[in-house]
Amino acid sequence: MVIGGAAAAQDTLPPADASSTSASEPSNVGEIVVTGSRIRRDPLSQDSPVVFVDKDDIAKTGLSAIADVLQRLPSASGGLNSKSNNSGNVGNPPDGGGVGAGSAEIDLRYLSAKRTLVLVDGLRFVNGTSASGLPATVDLNTIPANSIERIEVLQSGASPLYGSDAIAGVVNIITVAQQEGIRASAQFGTFRQGDGHTQDYQLSYGLKGPTTNFVVGGSYVKQEAVRSADRDISQFPNPHQTACSPTQSGCSSASANGRFDLRPYVKGGNFTISTAPDNTPTFAELRPFTAADRFNFAPFQYLLTPSQRYGVWASFKQEITSDINLRIKTQYSHRKSQNQAAFEPLFIGPDAGNGAGSLFDTLSIDKTNPFNPFGYTLESGLNPNGTFNGRAQNYSFIGRRLIEAGQRTFNQKVNTYSVTTTVDGSFDVGARQWFWDLNAVAAGNQARQSFTGNVNAARVAQAIGPLAGCVAPCVPLNLFGGAGTITPAMLNFIAFTERDSSAQYLFDYTANLSGDLFDLPAGPLAFAVGYEHRYQKANFEPDPIVAAGLGADIPAAPAGGHYDADEVFGEVRVPILKETPFFYSLEANAAVRHSNYSTSGSSTTYTATGLWKPVEDLLLRGSYATGFRAPSLGELFGGRSRFDLNVNDPCSNIPGSPYQSNATVRANCTANGVPVSGSYAEDPFQAPVITQGNRALKPEKSRSFLAGAVYSPAWARRGGFASNLSLEVNYYDIEVTNAIGVVDPNLVLNNCALLGDKPSCALVVRTGNGFVNEINGTLQNLDSIRTKGIDLIGIYRSRRTGLGTFGLTLNATRLLKYVLTASNGFVVLNRKGTERGSPDQAFPKYKGNATIDWTLGDFGASFTGRYIDAVTELRGGTTPHELGSRIYGDFQLNYEPSFLAKRFAFTAGVNNVFDKDPPACFTCSVNNYDPTTYDVPGQFGYLRVSYKM
Known about the structure:
By secondary structure, this protein is mainly β.
């Protein structure tokens, strides 16, 4: 089985030793438990589309993160990974999960990672956290790669078998349970440009006795950064941009030398300093602010985020009696990671748009501040709590890029631990053998994040307020003198290092029983039943200064909560016909699960499956399943925060806007707080969407239909044509209802302006000058999703010849439909063949991987081609932009010398051998491309040496 450089082709049959690696399996040759059923069965007749990726396949990719391997599956649709660098750039996502800096996820079927269930040895694993919220997903970076025996990816909904979250599918990570001797490897990789160095070291040792297996291992991975300044695509805010100018927008108005906007109170009152650095700025030294003064923040990002990951793990398995086994697994991982953004953009004033009740939106700059060049107080007209203070507003906002404070740098330290105990066995019921297992999981994830570059609003208020009130240690603040005029003494007073923390804990207890009840003419009627009790809790504690609303960056509030869940399930397999004409076998399977959550009530889901083999070589199958997803802790209890989303405000008095052409729009906008004079004129901008959890959320519901066929001809194996030949085709149709989301902010603005819709207008808070200060984005059960597609997997492996052994594998997906009905049905979006932009996600019609591999004696080689179809980027009122198709190529060469008893293996490889850059994207969040779909620009080469004894 080979997946070459990119998880290109994965076997649909488990590895030969699969039955020996699962935690809860007494020896029973010929039947094993495979993801997709709780009943032990012949793996050649599995009733669900399961793809297998084992440790050898992972090694053949040259990748050092499991998430990067899985995200290359055609059925996968990205998720967080090391190419994501959103801290401080677009705010916290609306789902309460936080930015997830340094984390890695897996998302199947474009349904988001929170609808893909991740298991470890068939059991739940603790959700990750990166000290910015309460995520609903497992961080795959917390699982050491060399602890993994194989990964089983169930590409269909499985809530009746596994419970909440398994709407899109299940990723089951099977860990190493037995090993003899030492296994070690060391790998170094780098990009051709000389950056992004990666070091990967793995070591494990195992003892195997007649009744005892013990394995212990450790790993260390260091990934260095690739900076946006070092690739052409990411040097400016927009693709192909070469300067900040009126014709090439996107640069920030929080400029290095400042922007001082007094419009409409002063005609032409949009200023900057002309004599920077200026420690004694005067009105005469001001000049008009132009597009050329805007700040290019793009080259200060990461394209590939740096991190270090340490992992240790152990597995102990003891046969207590001939019918009872004990297994204890422990795991610990430590991650240090970093995200980076440009220098803090400080916005002060009533039109600053910080939102969420920020003190910065209420600040006035006193006339006695020694650096105020206007000679009078710049008055916000607001009290610190946002109410009117009785004085007239006379300025809009001040924007200043805090170059002197250094770049915003976010450092995460994350510790994850897990202890699992399993007791399993079997007993006889008459002439039949029944199997049982009891499992207990205790796991935790604790994260801390430090953020440098932030400033304290209360201290800024004091430093720009009346001079008489700025006494030591206060130092008056110069916001008007340009870059280099905020002195270390000024910074020492206003700056602080933000320190946030978060944690998630899981306690999970399960009991399972399975076996055969009685014989039918076509075989035994088999069953499985089980019970699960789960307790999860999480908390997020932002820095006290931020929690008080005094930070200059993304606002955040404390959050925390917990829930209990009790679940029971049952599954049955009914053989109907066997070895009769046109019915080599025919069977029906069914499962049902009842779940009771302390937060969201009860839900019952079910599934029914039919399998028909008209002849021995051909399997036809079909299934129908219902599913659900309970609201996550972040969605229920998430604190108030902000997500910045690109919008076109129809109330803005700019050329081509509805405001200029429609009297009804002008009247509706005036009623919503836009000045009747038409002075509000803003180009498309990032609107502050204020997000928070909602304890009234209901569970999401789903239904899925699957039909497929597997053809594995015996004649090809008997005739010498192949040692393995199979072709599998699956059709899927998934619908999610009651999906949790926020009302689209563009829809809110349009409904208010065009229709005068009062509920929509109530969600928009504008300043006195008409600027959008915030849009209410409280989570609701608003959306539905319908997706359909076809998966194709082909596997061929030749017999051994004089020229070696050859293999060809193919894995492809055709997306037939993806329709999002959002905002209670007001928005219907056909995503098929499009690029969504922020939050980044492409929906190509075709994705596929193909691998050719060859082995001869001591040598082996493989080449993988990865294809991503073209997609169209919809950019609001502008012309759609096509992101062209991409074909990536990955090559690997392997040498295992016989004269060293094949204990050593030497490997060299190049990923993206054709040096293909990702297609440019205008609406993607950062770096002008979609990191969930495409590779970091540049060729990546690696060398590895491995040893086993």
